[in-house]
Automatic annotation (TrEMBL):
Pfam families linked to this entry: ADH_Fe_C (PF25137), Dioxygenase_C (PF00775), Dioxygenase_N (PF04444), Fe-ADH (PF00465)
Organism lineage string: Bacteria, Bacillati, Actinomycetota, Actinomycetes, Pseudonocardiales
InterPro entries referenced in this protein's UniProt entry, alphabetically: ADH_Fe/GldA, ADH_Fe_C, Catechol_dOase_N, Intradiol_dOase_C, Intradiol_dOase_core, Intradiol_RC_Dioxygenase, MAR
GO MF entry, a single one: maleylacetate reductase activity
Ranges for domain Catechol dioxygenase N-terminal: 383-452
Cofactor: Fe(3+)
Signal peptide bounds: none
Keyword annotations from UniProtKB, A to Z: Dioxygenase, Iron, Metal-binding, Oxidoreductase
Protein name: Alcohol dehydrogenase class IV
Organism: Actinocrispum wychmicini
């Protein structure tokens, strides 16, 4: 037929491919392990080293009889070379001429590691669905680094699948190991090396897994379901050994190798999300997978299957730290590799974030899309407002995602904030209290203060400041006879060169001996323990008050409830507030803390700074203005304020 006569509508007709099958003998039979000796002899071997994880070793020992000369049970995950060295010593010492590897991926990999070094023939007897026995690939770890190599010497010569050995594989492991096999099949279908042979193997594997796994979950001893899944494991393992894998395997390899994530569980969590990532780039493959699974949408269908099987669905539940995701994304994209959709660090981070929360894949990432939409809605806002609101939206959305916020938690937060608003009034500011107890006020304060390091540190305003306090002359007693240890305050205000700042307004406020501000005491007649002074020509002011005591912040509202619910105390370290203002100077809001006072290390609003802890010196004898008191205290302090607005 001439080229121009080719039937264009049927592209399969034109398909060309290459397919390399591994030269292994595969025995698939219930009870096959009883005849293991025959396979050993068929290989011309007479001395067997048995590698096993312990389980089913007796059945194999019986079958091997005198052929068995040594055992090694030390195989561990990721095939560290030190362990391989120990097994090598056993192989040498026993002069074994054949290795039987009985177990899961770790044991089978150890057999491969021995074969790579010695070319000793191997018989693999898998007891899980990982599929490693069907691949000429070996992953080893040396000095904490995992490397992978491929060689014909690595492929086991014989694989014996005995379904009876899988009957005791715990359901949870059956599920994750089965999804691991599913991942091999899925990635084979969109592999750059995909061919009609592996396609058929992969699709058959998917069909058997979709049928068998739910049956195993409802009856773990169902031999025909176990048989289906074991065959699927072999078919999928053959795919894995024949064609290259894509993003999913790369990602799981990174998460296992660099973050210690468990192998099969990680495969289980990640698979639906990588499928969703690749879906638009491989629609035909997804359609075939969906058909084989018997669902409409392949990524969603795989997710639903895992949920139905009770498998893990989030990296979070596997112990992955959210903060490690960007590094994992970077590592997984450091080198290019074939994948239906271009692999970008951003894209992979999205996949990881979705896998971390475990939401059902939506055929694209739903939350990031929504976030982008809300962020864009502020595009035309005035510049600063735009920055503040867009970042707030990103932060809040990311918070909801990272914490997997439930609707009832969201509603509790709304109720909490509503109560915070309802209890607030002209004299009670519960929102400031909330900001204070969450440390937000102190963060803003630090940001502000760090811009002028030569000035006196600032400290939170607190909710008890009342604008426009009564103006008072120097030397007055702002305690107006309230009980307490008399305190003489003698302070100066200077600029950053030490020049006195005259005529500055200095507002002062503090709590009484019982820890209450006047605004908290409705029976009080007018303001007390608060005043406005003006500095004299020397930048100075003096007044009497009482020694402040530690006090609890108001705890009868939602903030108090939060502190109680979280086991935090409510106390502030003893202090006097100052607000210093003068046109042309930056207003300084700060507090002086009593050296030696309680709660300096655990102030509930995080307001204490070293530079503000001052000696309130005990005094006997005459007072500065001749006032007659027995014992009293005195505090001297120089506040430094900076010019500016
Ligand atoms: C205060 O010092 O007045 C205060 C500051 C923050 C929260 C509660 C009280
Ligand atoms: Fe206070």
């Amino acid at each position: 037929m001439q080229a121009d006569q080719e039937p264009r509508s049927d592209t399969r007709w034109m398909t060309s491919f290459s397919y390399t099958a591994g030269p292994a003998r595969v025995v698939f039979a219930p009870g096959a392990v009883r005849h293991l000796d025959l396979d050993v002899r068929r290989l011309g071997a007479t001395r067997v080293l048995l590698l096993s994880g312990g389980r089913h070793a007796e059945a194999v020992e019986q079958a091997l009889g005198p052929l068995l000369v040594a055992r090694f049970e030390g195989a561990v995950m990721h095939t560290p070379v030190e362990v391989t060295e120990q097994a090598m010593a056993e192989l040498r010492d026993s002069a074994a001429d054949c290795v039987v590897a009985l177990g899961g991926g770790s044991v089978i990999n150890l057999g491969k590691a021995l074969a790579l070094r010695t070319d000793v023939p191997q018989i693999a007897v898998p007891t899980t669905y990982a599929g490693s026995e069907a691949t000429p690939v070996l992953g080893e770890t040396a000095d904490g680094r995992k490397t992978t190599q491929r060689s014909p010497a690595i492929l086991p010569e014989v694989v014996v699948y005995d379904v009876y050995l899988t009957l005791t594989l715990p359901v949870a492991m059956s599920v994750t190991s089965g999804v691991n096999a599913l991942a091999h099949a899925v990635e084979a279908l969109y592999s750059a090396d995909a061919n009609p042979i592996t396609d058929q193997l992969a699709l058959e594997a998917i069909r058997r897994l979709a049928r068998g796994l739910p049956q195993i979950v409802s009856d773990p001893s169902d031999v025909s379901a176990r048989s289906d899944v074991l065959q699927a494991a072999w078919l999928a393992g053959t795919c894995l050994g024949t064609v290259g894998m894509g993003l999913h395997h790369k990602l799981c390899h990174t998460l296992g190798g660099s973050f210690g994530m468990p192998h099969a569980e990680t495969h289980t969590v990640v698979l639906p999300h990588v499928m969703a990532y690749n879906a638009a780039a491989a629609p035909d493959v997804m359609r075939r997978i969906a058909e084989a699974l018997g669902v409409d949408d392949a990524p969603g269908g795989v997710h639903d299957l895992i949920v139905r099987l009770g498998g893990p669905t989030s990296l979070r539940e596997l112990g992955m730290a959210f903060d490690d995701l960007p590094r994992a994304a970077e590592l997984a994209t450091a080198q290019p590799y074939p994948n239906p959709r271009e692999v970008t660090a951003d894209g992979v981070l999205r996949v990881l974030e979705e896998a971390w929360t475990g939401e059902r894949p939506q055929g694209g990432s739903a939350v990031p899309k929504l976030t982008a939409q809300v962020v864009a809605s502020f595009d035309d806002a005035p510049p600063r407002l735009r920055v503040l609101l867009q970042d707030l939206v990103r932060t809040l959305h990311s918070y909801a995602v990272r914490t997997d916020l439930t609707e009832s938690e969201w509603l509790s937060a709304i109720t909490f904030l509503t109560r915070t608003g309802q209890i607030s009034s002209d004299t009670r500011q519960e929102f400031i209290l909330l900001s204070d107890t969450l440390g937000v006020s102190s963060v803003v304060d630090l940001l502000t203060n760090s811009r002028s390091p030569d000035t006196t540190p600032s400290a939170v305003l607190g909710p008890f400041y009342v604008d426009g306090p009564p103006a008072r002359p120097h030397g007055v007693d702002i305690a107006e006879g309230l009980p307490g240890v008399p305190l003489w305050v003698d302070v100066r205000i200077v600029d950053t060169h030490g020049t006195p700042v005259s005529d500055a307004t200095v507002d002062v406020w503090q709590a009484n001996e019982d820890g209450f501000y006047d605004v908290q005491l409705p029976d009080l007649d007018g303001p007390v323990l608060r005043a406005r002074f003006r500095t004299d020509a020397d930048g100075r002011l003096t007044f009497w008050t009482i020694l402040p005591a530690a006090y609890p912040i108001p705890d009868d509202g939602p903030v108090g409830a939060m502190l109680t619910a979280t086991g935090r105390h409510q106390f502030r370290a003893p202090h006097v507030h100052f607000m210093i203002a003068k046109p042309g100077f930056r207003t300084l809001v700060t507090q002086l803390f009593v050296q030696g006072g309680e709660y300096l290390d655990s102030d509930t609003v995080f307001g204490v700074k070293d530079g503000l802890i001052v000696d309130f010196v005990e005094q006997q004898g005459p007072t500065p203005d001749g006032r007659a008191v027995d014992s009293w205290r005195k505090v001297d302090f120089v506040f430094r304020v900076s010019q500016g607005v």
